[in-house]
UniProtKB/TrEMBL annotation:
It comes from Cryptosporangium arvum DSM 44712. CDD domains: TrHb2_O-like. Keywords: Heme, Iron, Metal-binding, Transport. GO terms for molecular function: heme binding; metal ion binding; oxygen binding. Signal peptide: none annotated. Heme binds at H55. InterPro entries: Globin-like_sf, Globin/Proto, Hemoglobin_trunc. Pfam families: Bac_globin. This is Hemoglobin.
Length: 162
């Protein structure tokens, strides 16, 4: 008797989005919007540098399943978390940040299937709430933690079996 095993691998969110080039487009589109936003510009006086954009692209790529360069080259979670200390992010700024991320995903032509976008905004919601909490004066901050690796959650992409 022959048994046929059908194995379909679920792609990482990084690969599904289009890899490094897609995350570069996303982060540049996002900070282009930030630079024109009256609520967020006070947090980025003088604009958002190429270096900042490159670092944040590395963070997002790693979180979504791409190369772990933010951990190996830039200082990992510890560096990211300390960048937010004492920024005093307001709930309005958090919400604006999250909204602009969703719009930037459209600007950058990221996949717009409901499964990908649900996972994407799930991470945005999670990350922005953590950033807000960590940015408050006197916040009790976890200094060392792994960079998260985000997944599809309950709805991976629908892949017909034949
Ligand atoms: C999903 C949520 C977020 C992620 C993944 C994220 C990621 C990062 C990373 C990786 C850095 C450090 C870049 C480097 O290594 O040089 C950073 C810095 C920064 N983030 Fe966030 N962030 C998030 C939410 C927010 C929010 C909600 C705000 C404000 C509304 C914010 C404001 C900033 C600012 C102002 C810096 C620069 C600080 C400095 O260089 O002095 N972030 N962010």
């Amino acid at each position: 008797m022959i048994t046929v095993l059908h194995v379909t691998e679920t792609p990482t969110l990084f690969d599904w989005a289009g890899g490094s080039a897609a995350f570069e487009r996303l982060i540049n589109a996002f900070y282009d919007r930030v630079e024109g936003d009256e609520l967020l510009t006070p947090l980025f006086p003088g604009g958002v540098s190429d270096e900042h954009r490159t670092h944040v692209t590395a963070w997002w790529s790693e979180v979504f399943g791409g190369p772990a360069e933010y951990s190996s080259e830039l200082g990992g979670y510890h560096r990211m978390v300390n960048k937010h200390v004492d920024l005093g992010i307001t709930p309005e700024q958090r919400y604006r940040f999250a909204s602009l991320m969703s719009l930037a995903a459209d600007d950058a032509g990221l996949p717009d299937d409901p499964e990908f976008r649900a996972a994407f905004v799930g991470y945005v919601e999670w990350g922005t709430r953590i950033a807000l909490a960590n940015s408050q004066p006197g916040a009790d901050i976890v200094q060392q933690a792994p960079v998260p690796r985000w997944g599809w959650g309950v709805a991976p992409p629908y892949q017909p079996s034949n």
